[in-house]
Write a structure and sequence with these properties.
Elements: H1 3-9, E1 11-14, E2 17-20, H2 21-38, H3 44-58, H4 61-64, H5 73-102, H6 117-142, H7 147-166, H8 171-189, H9 192-231
Antiparallel strand pairs: 1-2
Helix pairs in contact: 2-3, 2-9, 3-5, 5-7, 6-7, 7-8, 8-9
Membrane topology: Multi-pass membrane protein
Subcellular location: Cell membrane
Organism: Cellulomonas hominis
Length: 232
């Protein structure tokens, strides 16, 4: 067995259950990405992509004949879309960082938090409802485990990641709704490390929501002062 095969199949036993190391490692990369997002750092995006690639293989347990032999197509599919949205966020935040350096503030965060507003919430609700219904039907046809819960996790995760890229404070709230559904689903399907990490994420997202809200309140007076300087 070569090294790559060993890394792919390596397992540990937790409370009598076999667990893949790549599920643990993939979720740790995801947690690191969430913490980077909380601090509004560009490196959060590439770190998250590494975790997405690992977890894509984990959630196709039936395809890869892993100890967790249930296929969660929504969980696996969202990793693919995560990568696409992460590239968008990576580019967007990198551009903001370059603009900050050019303006003489190289240590400024990559994004200034803001509320999504009515137009943003219309997008969130419309995509959330329609996307969940459509995806649930698709996942049912594919034989996914818990298709309706899986569909919401899939759609909600994409919305949250897109909201993070746009700098919407509400994206943290969407993550809370995803975690509330994700923990029971993952426990029932036997993906215990992912379920535990979802619980940890819940603490991170609550903290992130507060941090971004406060950052928005601090940024608002600065924007007003800057606008007054330009008009003067």
């Amino acid at each position: 067995m070569n090294v790559l095969s060993w890394l792919f199949d390596a397992q540990l036993v937790v409370a009598g259950h076999a667990v893949l190391w790549r599920e643990v490692v993939g979720n740790l990369f995801g947690l690191a990405s969430a913490l980077g997002g909380l601090r509004r750092r560009v490196w959060a995006w590439p770190v998250g992509i590494v975790g997405n690639v690992l977890l894509f293989t984990v959630f196709l347990g039936g395809v890869f004949h892993t100890p967790q032999d249930r296929d969660l197509y929504g969980q696996a599919g969202r990793q693919v879309f995560f990568v696409a949205v992460a590239v968008y966020g990576w580019v967007r935040w990198s551009q903001a960082r370059r603009a900050a350096r050019d303006a003489g503030t190289p240590d400024a965060p990559a994004v200034v938090p803001r509320w999504a507003g009515w137009s943003g919430w219309v997008q969130i609700l419309l995509i959330g409802v329609v996307g969940t219904v459509v995806c649930a039907r698709v996942f049912e046809a594919l034989g996914s485990w818990g298709p309706w819960a899986d569909a919401w996790i899939f759609v909600g995760s994409l919305l949250a990641t897109y909201g993070m890229a746009r700098g919407w404070i509400e994206f943290w709230l969407i993550w809370i709704a995803v975690d509330a559904v994700g923990v029971p689903l993952l426990l029932s399907a036997g993906y215990y490390p992912s379920a535990v990490l979802y619980l940890v994420y819940a603490g991170v997202v609550v903290s992130g929501f507060v941090v971004w809200w406060r950052a928005r309140d601090r940024a608002e007076p600065q924007q007003v002062t800057a606008a007054a300087g330009v008009s003067g």
